[in-house]
Amino acid sequence: MPDGSRIIFVTTGITTFSSITPNYLLYATCKGAIKQMTRMMAKDLVPKGIHVNALSPGPTTTEFFFQDKTDQVIKAINKRNPFGRLGVVEEIADVFMFLCSKQSSWVNGQCLLANGGAMV
Hints:
The chain is α/β, with parallel strands linked by helices. The protein has helices at 25-45, 63-66, 71-80, 89-100; strands at residues 6-10, 51-57, 111-114.
């Protein structure tokens, strides 16, 4: 990878949330490992001019998110967010684009939460 390249992993906000249901245990564990990998790779690759970060979206309106969730569960998740809603894909894409841009030149080894303040 050339100098100035960016590696951006996608994790999840539930790695910072202790009230997840048991069916998310393996998913959250794997995504937590990605967060650690982000930090370690960032240290190793920064001398080569490569930035490594991760994006941790909160609940977002994707097909995957809606799988096996009732309307009641969705409403409860919306209530936990200060905005009272789920994030939309375009909002997550904007954060991703920031991490790809030169404006993020001083951001390295970070896992940015994009969740509307739901997990603070």
